[in-house]
Amino acid sequence: MLKVFSHYFPSHTLQQVLFDAVLLFVVVLLAVGLSAGPGDPEWMVFTPSALTFALLMVGLNTAMGLYRPVLQRSSRQAFARVALSLVVSVPVAYAVFGLLPWADLAPHSLQWSVVLLLSSTLLMRGIVNQRQASGLFAPRVLIIGTGKDAATVYRDLTRPLQKSVEVVGFLRAGSDERPEVDPRQVLAPRGLLDIVRELRVNEVVVAVRERRGGVLPIRELLDCKLAGVRIVDLSSFFERVQGQVRLESLRASWLIYGDGFRQGLARTCVKRLFDIVVALILLLMSLPLMLVTALLIVIEDGAPVFYRQERVGFGGRVFRVIKFRSMRRDAEKDGKPRWATSNDDRVTRVGRIIRKLRIDELPQLFNVLVGDMSLVGPRPERPFFVDQLAREIPFYNVRHCVKPGVTGWAQVRYQYGASVDDAIEKLQYDLYYVKNHTLILDTLVLFETVRVVLTGEGAH
After folding, report:
1. What is the dihedral sign for C-alpha 314, 248, 153, 255?
2. Which residue from 163, 197, 320, 395 puts its CA 20 to 30 A from 348's CA?
3. What backbone torsions phi and psi does residue 333 show, to the nearest 5 degrees?
4. Residue 160 pLDDT more than 70?
5. DSSP letter string over 4-41?
6. Which residue has the higher pLDDT, 261 or 166?
7. Boundaries of each Bacterial sugar transferase domain copy (predicted)?
8. Cα(109)–Cα(199) distance, integer angstroms
9. 392 shares its domain with 332
10. CATH of the domain at 224
C-alpha cells in the first residue's frame, strides 16, 4: 500500500496504472510518428500530446473502477466494469484525439487505430484483474499473533484486493491466545530478528490486542524497525487495507494525538467551493431526469413529489433533507420511525427504480447549495436513530464533525444495511473519511458512486 494525499492505494494497482500509461504513451507516440509522413516528425508536438492522451485515458478508467480487483468468480462484475470503461473511454478518446495538436498531422484512420488500441488494452486489463496475478516486488509479511485478529489480518491480506502480498507465516505471541489460524503456517518460536532476516520479511503486522506482561517482543520489534522493516499495529492495518478506523482498536487518546482528523478554515473553504461548483454542474446535467422522475411519481402515486425529513447534520444540528418520494404517502402512518430495508414493501414501483439508481438523492443537491450538506460525507441519519446509535456505539457522534454528504465513503465500500450492526460497519468507514478527507478522496468517492450505480455493484 502507498499513501497518496492521505489515502491508501494498493501498490500493485499503481503498478498496473503505470504500466498501461507507459504502454499507451509509447504505442501512440510511435503510431502517430510513423504516420506523420516523410520528413522529420514533430516530436515536440507528438510527445506531450501522447503523454496527455495516455494519462487522461488511464486516469479516466481508474476513476471508473477498472483497476480495482473484483471478487473471484464474479464474471458479471468484471464484465460490467470493462463494459463501463469501454462505453465511457471510446467516445472520450475519439474526441480528445481530435482536439490534440496532432490531428492535422495524422490521418483519420490512425484515430480509429488508437481507439482500437485503447479498447484492446482495457479488455486485457479486465481479464488480468479477474485472475490472481501477483504484482512486482510483492512485500513479504509476517503476522505476530495466532488468534482471531491474526486470522482476520490473514484473510484481508490474501483476498483479491491484496493479491500482491505474500504472507510468510504467523509467530505466536503469549501462551493464553487461542489459535484460529492454520497450525502449519505457525513458525517455530525463535528470535524475531532472525526470522525476519531468514525469511526476508518486509513488514510485520502486530495482530495482538493485549500487550501487557511481556506478550510482545518490544525490543526485537524495535530492532526490526531500525533494520528497515515496517511495523504495523491493528489500527493502522485496518485503516490502510480496509479503509476503516476500527472501533475495537479505537481510543480517545488516539483520536486526540493521532494523525488526521484535521479541520481548518482553508480546508473548509476549498471543500465548500468544490461543493457549490460541482453541485451546480450536476443540477444542470440532471434537470431533465429530475423532471421526468417528478412526472412518474405523480402518475403512480400522486403528489407530493418531494419528501422532507429531519436529519442530524454538522455539529449535531437538525435540518430537513430533500429527496424524491420513493415510498407510499402512508409509509409511516403510525408515526413510528422504521429502518428502511432493501426490499421494503412501502416502496412504490417508481421508487424502487429511483432508489436503485439513487435518483431519489438528486434533490439533495439543493441541500448542498444552501450549506446543510456536502457532496461527500457521512450519510445523515434521523434524530431518533442517532440517539439510539449514540447510546450503543462508542464515538458515533465523531461523524458529525463534518457535513453529511449526498454520497459517502461508506456507501461505496459497504452494501446496503439497516441495523445497528450495519451502522457500526458504516461508522468505521465514516471515521476513515473524517480522518482522511481531502478533495482527492471526495473526487474518488464521486467516481466510485457513478461506477457503483452503473454497474449495479451496490444497492441503495
Report:
1. positive
2. 320
3. -65, -20
4. no
5. ETTEEE-HHHHHHHHHHHHHHHHHHHHHHHHTS-SS--
6. 166
7. 271-454
8. 54
9. yes
10. 3.40.50.720
- How many angstroms separate the CA atoms of 286 and 368, rounded? 15
> Please, which residues have CB within 8 angstroms of residue 185's CB and are 6 or more apart in sequence?
167, 169, 170
Q: Kindly indicate the confidence band of residue 73, based on its pLDDT and cuts at 50, 70 and 90.
A: very low
**Does a structural domain hold residue 45?**
yes
Alpha-carbon distance 320 to 318, whole Å? 7
* Higher-confidence position of 271 and 114: 271
Specify whether the CB–CB gap between 439 and 274 falls below 8 A: yes
Chain centroid, CA 384 distance in Å: 29
> How, if at all, do strands 7-9 and 140-144 pair?
unpaired
User: Where do runs of H (alpha helix) occur along 310-361?
Assistant: 349-356
Q: Which residue has the higher pLDDT, 455 or 91?
A: 91
Are 237 and 285 found together in one domain? Answer: no
The residues that bridge with 376 in the sheet, in sequence order, are 407
Average pLDDT over residues 317-345: 74
State the pLDDT at residue 226: 92
What is the pLDDT, as a whole number, of residue 459? 45
Determine what percent of the chain falls in helix, strand and coil, rounding each to the nearest 5: 55, 10, 35
The domain of 304 spans: 265-455
Does residue 74 lie within any of the structural domains? yes
Higher pLDDT, 41 or 389: 389
User: Distance (Å, rounded) from C-alpha 450 to C-alpha 358?
Assistant: 10
Is residue 271's pLDDT more than 70? yes
As for how many domains the chain has, the answer is 3
pLDDT bucket at 354, cuts 50 / 70 / 90: confident
Say if 252 falls within a structural domain.
no
- Do 102 and 49 touch, CB atoms closer than 8 A? yes
- Same domain (yes/no): 302, 328: yes
Residue pLDDT, tens place only, 415-460 = 666 667 788 888 889 988 988 888 888 988 888 888 777 765 554 4
Q: Which residue has better confidence, 326 or 31? A: 326
For residue 460, being part of any structural domain is answered with no
Residues 328 and 238 in one domain: no
Same domain, 405 and 440: yes
> Any idea what DSSP says for residue 394?
T
Q: Are residues 238 and 311 in the same domain?
A: no
In tens, the pLDDT along 192-212 reads 999 999 999 999 999 887 666
Asked if residue 147 and residue 124 are part of one domain, the reply reads no
Q: Under DSSP, is residue 15 helix (H, G, I), strand (E, B) or coil? A: helix
* Whether 339 and 290 share a structural domain: yes
CB atoms within 10 A of CB 347: 22
Which DSSP category does 327 fall into?
Answer: B
Grid coordinates representing 89 are 473511454
Cα separation, 436 vs 8, in Å, equals: 10
Residue 189 three-state SS: coil
Grid coordinates representing 226 are 531500525
